[in-house]
Amino acid sequence: MKKIFLSLILMLATVQLFAQDNGVEMADRLRSDGKIYVVVTCIVIILVGLLAYLFSIDKRLKKIEKENTGKN
């Protein structure tokens, strides 16, 4: 019963999304001016930077964990 109720709520939540208008004027304007590629490039650069930062933190943590397990 719980699964059916949850499924019903999720379906009703998605029905609301179909009622929205799909005409996004800002995206159309950016696409027509060719500036959408600048926006996408900036987002990609930011995400790559965040991923590089997270991987560097992960490497440091692994190094610290190895040092701590060697001492114990």
TrEMBL record:
Protein name, per record: CcmD family protein
A Pfam entry, by short name: CcmD_alt
Range of residues in the leader sequence: 1-19
Keyword terms of this UniProt record: Membrane, Signal, Transmembrane, Transmembrane helix
Transmembrane parts of this sequence: 35-56
Organism: Pedobacter psychrotolerans
